[in-house]
Design goal:
Layout lengths: L4 E3 L2 H9 L6 E4 L24 H5 L5 E5 L4 H7 L5 E5 L4 H14 L3 H26 L10 E8 L2 E3 L2 H9 L3 E2 L9 H7 L3 E4 L10 H5 L8 H4 L3 E3 L2 H5 L4 H13 L16 E2 L3
Parallel strand pairs: 1-2, 1-3, 3-4, 5-7, 5-8, 8-9
Antiparallel strand pairs: 5-6, 9-10
Helix pairs in contact: 4-5, 5-11, 6-11
């Protein structure tokens, strides 16, 4: 049976489009086109935090897909209607793969799901090997850059656990607990060499000036060496195919002196922090 899916989760939208199931989508959240331009002309119905249930139901969906966290009252209004609701809550890259297989099964594209997972694994492995070449081996091996990735500044929240995996793939080491609230003092004690700002739902509008102006961080190596970067939040906060480009972006930022060795690495442009 062909589904009529309303996706309130950009991650699910990116996966479904990558699986070739674009035609089964009948509505999306306002954020979905940022990671899947193919859905730009579909009706937009809000997200799991704010929407009009009647506008969603007017699309006659057979399945609604959201993500955790969500606003309980918003989802409760959706559940008043006789339609299935799937809430996705990945924490790791293994969970992302499981979600790909799950959605592939739902839309009858299990083979495409296996191929997508295999392709992402191969891409991650390529990035990992590039990072290893850059860092060298034996006595000449460079220390892995210490990294702090931030998903939100107020309160300060570390990027999700899968981002810590991307940092490791790109040849770095996440030095604070992923996905947790953290204090300025805890970040200062971790002494990251690189700070990456990917604030949720802000695109590439994270503000590095807030980092440089913070007195508590003035002695952090990343601040002292002007290595605070902004990455488009879609590349790190969308647990789906966009994470491959997120890993490529991290590879380039963590190893800025290896541009020649990374010449064949495709990355999206990133704004470097300003004074």
């Amino acid at each position: 049976m062909k589904h009529r899916i309303v996706s309130l989760a950009p991650s699910a939208t990116s996966i479904l489009v990558a699986l070739g199931a674009r035609r089964e989508l009948v509505g999306v959240s306002k954020w979905c086109a940022d990671v899947a331009p193919e859905v730009a002309k579909l009706p937009r119905v809000g997200d799991c935090w704010a929407l009009d249930p009647e506008s969603v139901m007017s699309l006659r969906p057979t399945l609604l897909i959201g993500s955790v966290p969500y606003k309980q009252e918003t989802v409760a209004k959706l559940l008043e209607h006789p339609v299935a609701f799937l809430a996705m809550n990945p924490r790791s890259l293994a969970d992302v793969e499981a979600d790909i297989h799950l959605l592939g099964g739902i839309v009858g594209r299990t083979v495409a799901a296996r191929k997508l997972v295999a392709r992402m694994r191969a891409d991650f492995q390529t990035i990992r090997m590039q990072a290893r070449r850059v860092r060298g081996s034996g006595s000449a091996k460079m220390r892995a850059p210490r990294v702090y990735c931030e998903a939100w500044p107020h309160p300060r929240i570390v990027s999700p656990p899968w981002v810590a995996e991307l940092v490791e793939i790109a040849g770095g080491e996440m030095v604070v607990p992923a996905g947790k609230r953290i204090s300025d003092e805890e970040v200062a004690r971790a002494k990251p060499d690189v700070i990456v700002l990917a604030w949720a739902a802000t695109g590439e509008k994270s503000d590095p000036l807030q980092t440089y102006d913070l007195a508590a961080w003035s002695e952090i190596p990343a601040v002292r060496d002007r290595r605070v970067y902004v990455v488009r939040d879609e590349l790190l906060n969308t647990p789906g195919p966009p994470l491959v480009d997120g890993a490529r972006e991290l590879l380039r930022l963590l190893h800025p002196n290896a541009s020649g060795q990374l010449a064949n690495t495709r990355v999206n442009p990133v704004k470097r922090s300003r004074r």
